Structures are given as C-alpha cells and as structure tokens.
Amino acid sequence: MKNAFMSLALAALLLLSGCVAPRSVSVPGEAASGYERAIERGRNIVSPLVRRGSGVSVAVGVNGRLVWSEGFGRTRLDDGEQVRPEMPFRVYSLIKQVTSLLALQTALRGEVDLRASVRRIIPDLPMHYEPVTLLQLLNHRAGVRHYRDAAEAVMTDHCVTAAEALPLFLNFPLVAEPGSNDSYSTWGFVLASAVLETAAGVPFGSLLEERILTPARMTSTRLEGSPGADTPLTFYDVDDDGRILIAPAIDNSCKMGGGGFLASAEDLVRFHNAVLRGELVPMPAVRQLLGDRTSLAAGGRGPGGQSVSLVDLETKVSVVVLSNTSGLEQQIALDRARGLLAAIFAPDHPLIPLESGARTHQRYP
Description:
- By secondary structure, the protein is an alpha+beta fold.
- It has helices spanning 2-17, 36-46, 95-108, 134-138, 186-200, 204-213, 265-276, 283-290, 328-344, and strands at 26-31, 55-62, 65-73, 89-90, 222-223, 236-238, 244-246, 261-263, 295-302, 305-312, 317-323.
- Helix 2 (36-46) packs antiparallel against helix 9 (328-344).
- The chain starts with a helix and ends in a 21-residue tail after the last helix.
C-alpha cells in the first residue's frame, strides 16, 4: 500500500512539474509498410517539439505517395483534444508555393503571361505598376513593399477576394525598381493573387480550390475565416520571457495566396506529391520555374503558428512539420526536424529499403 501511495504521489508531482505531459500523446495517420524504422526515428525527432507549445503535426511523402503522417500533443495546453494529422494549422508563407504553382498552371492555360505587365490584367492599377510582371511578384523581385512593421502583419479584417486586400498597400511607392534585386513581399503575393483571380473571373480561394486543392485531394486547406475553415487548435505565442501565451485573435485572410490559408501537414505533402507526379503541371515546367534548384525548402511563421517544408525533385522526398506555437526556439527546432526527417526518409538511407526505380543520389549527409 505504501509503495502504491508513493507511486501515485510521484506521478502527481511529475505531472504538476511538467515532466509528464499528457499532450505528448500522438495520433498516427498514414504509415506505409517498409518505413517502420524511419517512422520510429521520426517520432523521436518530432515528439520533443510539443515541449515548446501545444500541438505539432508532421507528414512525409516519398516517390509521390504519403508514407507517414502523425499528430503530436494537444490542441490546447490545458484540456485540448489530441492533435490529428488532418487538422489544419496556420501555415503562413508555405501557401506561397501553392500560389506559385497555380500561377504557372494559369500561364500554361494561356490565361496570363508571366512576363507581361500586371496592368494588362488589372488596368486600374496605379501607373507605377506598369513595369511589374507576375513572374517578378512570384520571385520577390517586383519592388512591392513588405509589412512596414510587425503590427501591420496582425490583421483582423476578413477578405473574401484578393481584390479587397489591394487598398492595404497598393498606393504605396515601390521600394525598388522591378527586376533589379530581391525584395521579399507578402503584399506582392497578394497582388499576384488578385491578378490570377481577375484573369479567371473567380475569387482566389475558389480558384485555388478548383485547380489545385481538389485535384491534389487537399481536403483541409481553406482561406482563414471562410466557411469550412474551422480548426480545434488554440494558437499560441512565446513572449521574451519564454512564457507561452494565447495568440491574439486575428484573421489572416487578407494575406490571400501570400499567407492567408490554414492547411494540414497531410494536405501540403499531397500537394508536393501531386507536383512530383506531374498531375498539376508538367514536371519540365516545374523545373524551369525552379531554375538551378533541385529542392525547395520553405517556411512560414506568424502569430499562433510556424511551418516548415521541403520537397526534393531528385530524392522525391517531401517533409512538412507544423506547430500551433510561434517563437524562435520552436523555429530552430522545426528547421532541424525538417532536415533530419528528409535525411532518414531519403530512398537510399540505410533505414529505407530501396524501391524499384528510386534514385540512389544522396543529397543529405
């Protein structure tokens, strides 16, 4: 009886001190045969990420198919449900790669010219946009400004169309001559979203759903604040003292294709897989868009969320890790997890049986 009492007391003490965290429970999704050892390693890499917040979701694709997905932790620090791999998180700038592919697809349809002035599609744009092209917007070389400060990135208004967001930045002068140098800009992607929706005559969210989300079987990706975009997640920020606080109530929808969407890790890997299979645009066009790059590492962060992804055209590995908690430590941890997962799921890694037709090029040491 004494030993049983001591065991219960110790368990209670550990729970109160945070050493035992019920939020560390994981909910498996996909788990492909032949990847058991890599998945076991992957769980050891991802599960510690919940120590810096509440919930984390991961998905991995290899050779055009989803081989592992899992949710870790809970939707809320105190009493939330367990995170499931299909739950949508705030992915912020990760949606830019989806927007870029939509633009490439729209150009291949002949609806836009990537190298023509955006005023050809939206003639009412101010004259200083005459030299700006859609391709420059996608490459962050159009000279459109980014947020003036952190406060401007925190929005509460809801936008149904990209055109509704244009007054937020449109009349400001360009910060650089178009095509002259790199100038990162989420507003530039909002303008790109408006060009695409104007060319198609369909609101950007509906256009993305019709041409990318539905064909790629992305069932959890929605514009924040729109019908069907609910998520059980509570969003958190970490302050300068390391305290985890509930993030302010915001609506990112006006960021449109630059950062306004919620998505699940599974959905983003499904997108990468559809790209690798050539189902959305021909692979030669994707390679031309990427130039000399054979892989694309990306990330997004903002109030209540951080996300990282990697897709490699040679190894055909895709990795996505999402967190509902922002903060520098979490960002560093997510970056590290992404690299480790890409390595252990590479087709020629000793943990992975070499599949028929898989490349034997080692990109990750």
